[in-house]
C-alpha cells in the first residue's frame, strides 16, 4: 500500500538551482512548503506514487528539442498519475569551470544531454574537438567539477555561481535565445481542475493495429469534433519493432462536450488510452474553436436522440 501523501512536500529534479526548481517556484501552493530534491524523473514520480510527496515537478517538452522521452515513457508506464498544472521557464545556458580555468583549457564538458543538444552551435564554433560526459541535471554537471577532474567545464543555468564557486567562461551559449521548457506538476489526485476556457488535456493512446490508415482514423476522432492537437509525438511501446504509442495534447478540457466526445470516440477505437489530465494552460491563452462544436450543439443533439428513442419526435 502507498504511504499516506504528505501535502507539505514537493519533489523536483535537483539539486538547487535547476530549471525544474525555477518551475516549482511558480506553484503558489508550494510556497513555504518542504521541497525534496531528486536525481531523475523516475525518482520524482516514485515519490508521488509512494506518498513521500504530494506532487512532483518534471520537464515534459522543450521548444527546441521537443518532448522529453524519459517523462513521456514514465507517464505511459506508471498508473494513476495526473497532470494538475503546467509551467513555462525560459532556458539559456552558461559555460562554467573551476577557478583559473580558461576556455583554451577545456577539452571535456559535463552536461545534461538535453542542455548539451541545445548548445551545439556555440560548442562547434568555439570547442570543436571537445568531449562530452552526460550529467543527471544541469546543476549536477557544474557540481561534478568539484568531485573529479574528468571534465574541464560544464554547461549550467545562469545564476549557477550563486550556488557554486565557479568561473563563467561564456554566457548565452544556447542555440536559441527564445528556448522555453514546459514543465508539468504531477500528482496522484483524481480530481480534475475546473475548466477555465484556457485549458489543455493530455492523453496517451495506442493504435489498434499496424495497417495503412490507422493513424488517420485515430486523428479523425479529434478532427470531426473540432478538437485541435497542440502536441503529437510517437514513442516505441517496446514489445516489438514498429509498435508505437502516441503522446497527445488537446486544446480544451474534458468537461467540454467536444473534448469528452472525442475521448469517448478514441476509447472505442484504441485498445489502450491513458488520461493524464485536464489542466489550465501555462500561457493563459483561451482556446478558440468553431462554434459548430460548442457544448450547446452536443447537448441539443443528445436531447434530440432522447426524444426519438422515447417516441416524442
UniProtKB/TrEMBL annotation:
RNA-binding recorded as keyword: no
**What keywords sit in the KW lines?**
Amino-acid biosynthesis, Aromatic amino acid biosynthesis, Lyase, Phenylalanine biosynthesis
All residue ranges annotated as the Prephenate dehydratase domain in the record? 9-188
ACT domain sequence ranges: 203-281
Q: State the reactions this protein catalyses.
A: prephenate + H(+) = 3-phenylpyruvate + CO2 + H2O
For this chain's UniProt record, which GO biological process terms are given? L-phenylalanine biosynthetic process
Key word Glycoprotein present:
no
Record site: Essential for prephenate dehydratase activity: 181
Report the EC code(s) recorded for this entry.
Answer: 4.2.1.51
> Which SUPFAM superfamilies does the record associate with it?
ACT-like (SSF55021), Periplasmic binding protein-like II (SSF53850)
Lineage, top-rank taxon, reads Bacteria
Cellular component per GO? Answer: cytoplasm
Fetch the CDD domains from UniProt.
Answer: ACT_CM-PDT (cd04905), PBP2_Aa-PDT_like (cd13632)
For this protein, the record's Gene3D superfamilies field holds: 3.30.70.260, Periplasmic binding protein-like II
User: What's an example of a GO molecular-function annotation for this chain?
Assistant: prephenate dehydratase activity
- Record-linked PANTHER family: PREPHENATE DEHYDRATASE P PROTEIN (PTHR21022), PREPHENATE DEHYDRATASE-RELATED (PTHR21022:SF19)
Q: What is this protein called?
A: Prephenate dehydratase
From which organism does this entry originate? Lacisediminihabitans profunda
Which gene name belongs to this protein? pheA
Amino acid at each position: 500500500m502507498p504511504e499516506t501523501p504528505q501535502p507539505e512536500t514537493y519533489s523536483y529534479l535537483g539539486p538547487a538551482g535547476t530549471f525544474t526548481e525555477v518551475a516549482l517556484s511558480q506553484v503558489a501552493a508550494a510556497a513555504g512548503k518542504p521541497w525534496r530534491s531528486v536525481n531523475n524523473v523516475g525518482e520524482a514520480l516514485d515519490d508521488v506514487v509512494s506518498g513521500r510527496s504530494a506532487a512532483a515537478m518534471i520537464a515534459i517538452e522543450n521548444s527546441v528539442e521537443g518532448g522529453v522521452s524519459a517523462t513521456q515513457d514514465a507517464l505511459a508506464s506508471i498508473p494513476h498519475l495526473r497532470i494538475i498544472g503546467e509551467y513555462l521557464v525560459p532556458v539559456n545556458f552558461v559555460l562554467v569551470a573551476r577557478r583559473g580555468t580558461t576556455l583554451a583549457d577545456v577539452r571535456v564538458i559535463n552536461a545534461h544531454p538535453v542542455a548539451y543538444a541545445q548548445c551545439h552551435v556555440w560548442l562547434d564554433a568555439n570547442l570543436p574537438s571537445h568531449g562530452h560526459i552526460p550529467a543527471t541535471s544541469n546543476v549536477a554537471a557544474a557540481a561534478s567539477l568539484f568531485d573529479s577532474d574528468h571534465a574541464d567545464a560544464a554547461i549550467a543555468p545562469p545564476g549557477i555561481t550563486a550556488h557554486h564557486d565557479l568561473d563563467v567562461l561564456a554566457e548565452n551559449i544556447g542555440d536559441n535565445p527564445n528556448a522555453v521548457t514546459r514543465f508539468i506538476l504531477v500528482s496522484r489526485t483524481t480530481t480534475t481542475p475546473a475548466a477555465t476556457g484556457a485549458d489543455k488535456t493530455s492523453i496517451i493512446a495506442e493504435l489498434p493495429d499496424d495497417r495503412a490508415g490507422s493513424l488517420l482514423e485515430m486523428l479523425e476522432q479529434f478532427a470531426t469534433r473540432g478538437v485541435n492537437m497542440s502536441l503529437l509525438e510517437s514513442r516505441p511501446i517496446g514489445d516489438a519493432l514498429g509498435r508505437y504509442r502516441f503522446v497527445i495534447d488537446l486544446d480544451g478540457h474534458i468537461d467540454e462536450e467536444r473534448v469528452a466526445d472525442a475521448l469517448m470516440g478514441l476509447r472505442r477505437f484504441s485498445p489502450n488510452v491513458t488520461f493524464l489530465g485536464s489542466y489550465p494552460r501555462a500561457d493563459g491563452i483561451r482556446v478558440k474553436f468553431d462554434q459548430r462544436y460548442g457544448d450547446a450543439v452536443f447537448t441539443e443533439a443528445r436531447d434530440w436522440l432522447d426524444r426519438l428513442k422515447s417516441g416524442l419526435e
